[in-house]
Amino acid sequence: MKHLATIAWMAWGLLATTADAAPVATASSPDGLTKIAIDFDPDGRINYSISRKDQPLIAPSRLGLLLTDGYALVRDFELVGQQTAEGDDRWEQPWGERHYVRDHYRELLTNFRQQSTGRLLSVRFRLFDQGVGFRYEVPSQAGLATLHIADEVTEFDIARPGTAWWQPGGESNRYEYLYNKTPIDGVATAHTPMTMRLDDGTHLAVHEAALVDYASMWLKREQGQKFRAMLSPSSQGPKVSRALPFASPWRTIRIADNAAGLVENDLELNLNEPNKLGDVSWVKPFKYIGIWWEMFLGKSTWASGPQHGATTANARHYIDFAARHGFDHLLIEGWNKGWDGQWWGFGKHVSLTEAYPDFDLKAVIDYGRQKGVQLIGHHETGGNVAHYESQLDAAMALYGKLGVSAIKTGYVADAGGLYAPGDQPGAVRMEWHDGQFMSRHHILVLEAAARYHIAINTHEPIKDTGLRRTYPNWVSREGARGMEYNASTYWQNPPSHEPTLVFTRMLAGPMDYTPGILSLQGLHGDPLPSTLARQLALYVALYSPIQMAADVPEQLAKYPRELDFIRQVPVDWEDSKLIDGAVGEYAVLARKDRHSADWYIGGITDDHKRNVALTFDFLDPAKTYRATIYRDGDDADFKTDTRHHIVIETRRVKRGDQMMIRMAPGGGMALRLHPSR
Questions:
Q1: Right CATH number for 23-270 from 2.70.70.10, 1.10.260.40, 2.70.98.10, 3.60.40.10?
Q2: Which residue among 17, 64, 240, 317 is the one 20 to 30 A from 277 at the CA level?
């Protein structure tokens, strides 16, 4: 059946190709391998198509905008001008997976006029060796001050069969779903990034960049392998309302010959505007612990009462542990009033400036300062964004006065269940986590935080689209199922989840996954689907400039050698490479410390054991390195009591050497490579 389907697909593709109109504009990537062509169908609809190495990737796909108050910008277009440009620059990240990013592209700007209305629409295409981005630009024009967009007709018609990894878009649990693996024509409605591997091994990932003052894009499969952009809903009728002139977010397609090319790719970062905040030397990567996991264990509560976790005494206990073990930040959740009763999806009673009686905010911060430990602030909204915005300035000013340099924000509510300010005082309306309103809101929070030199780590966020380049204080976010799901066997992430994240969610940007559950125990002692070595590997495999040692102090203290690795592993990198891996199966990444000559390797696998041959071609050929290896024991298996079995050993390695390491089912490996004297 698969063979017959492939033949039918090829026949359809041949038929479509022979019917294509002659292109009215073309462009190619700097290496000449990726090409784009623009044409019109007989009704004046704009189509684009993409090929690589003369093989089709995106079959002719439509472009245009549907409006709520006017004739759709879809058909009856003519090309009235085109311009080309080229850029080749190198810019520095203040923090990141790599220190410097090359921005090398060719650009095609196409200008269209709708003959029946006279309205103008431009589409800007930017082609890189690693992919393509394009966006709509609506110029100023007579008789049109504001555009009210009902949806886009942007299409992505995948030209060849393959496999897709995707999570459902538009469902109640936001981005917190396990990823589906299906044929491309088996996708329903998906969030982005959506990753695909074509049958010939070509890898694609469809996403977006620079999501500013616009609704997020979902991908809705129309038929076969054709997807259409579907914008996140709004309570206001139009999904997007923008004054002219404006530009949409970039629609992006990463293109790579293999999995490494998909991961080692800065397409979305390059399509964002440069840093708008000026001097951001105050944004510092860090590692932290927190009064957090103990709530998932049922040991304490966010709410006030006899089991309240966020007490002054407990905070001092955590600060003492952090200071002894080299952690310079502490997250405390539940210190402020508003956690009693049903706060999630409601949030009306949350105060971000008033503490519960058993917590002295200033005393805790002062005590931490004496020990060299900073408090991470916490702004949980319970989904009530209107209430949050009403106290945003006061809450930021409080933390600014107390010297808090980072805040974790939260928006716990079902999708479509966020309270937004209404048109009248006291009135509210309901919005989505990834609609235009929240796109605006997050920038409001970032700008307010920047005034007080505060970094933001967003949970229940809008998806990452590379805006950390423009706002470097947006240091991390959640936006996927994290470690908290492993607290209960009912919700647990299977071992394939993290090797899938590397090639899907992590393409968008940093994730606050919160690894470091060294006890490998959740609620009621439920075993985590992980080996001990895997917990260490996650610090390298899943990137974030802030990393948590998430377990409770008494459990972390039981594993001094592993805790020493967590203390040492950097959170700011000079360079990053995928040295081996396959989507959803396993991933081995190597990263070089930005502040030393050390390299680190982290490898994770699904529920299958693997023998991975490490080659060290990335090392400095003039140096010999002392490799400290944290690997699964020979009998380790995440499904048995051997999950804690770990071997820690040292070897000498140099460039050109090879090393075979076994990863257990649900396991992993971590290496530190330190130059020998």
A1: 2.70.98.10
A2: 240
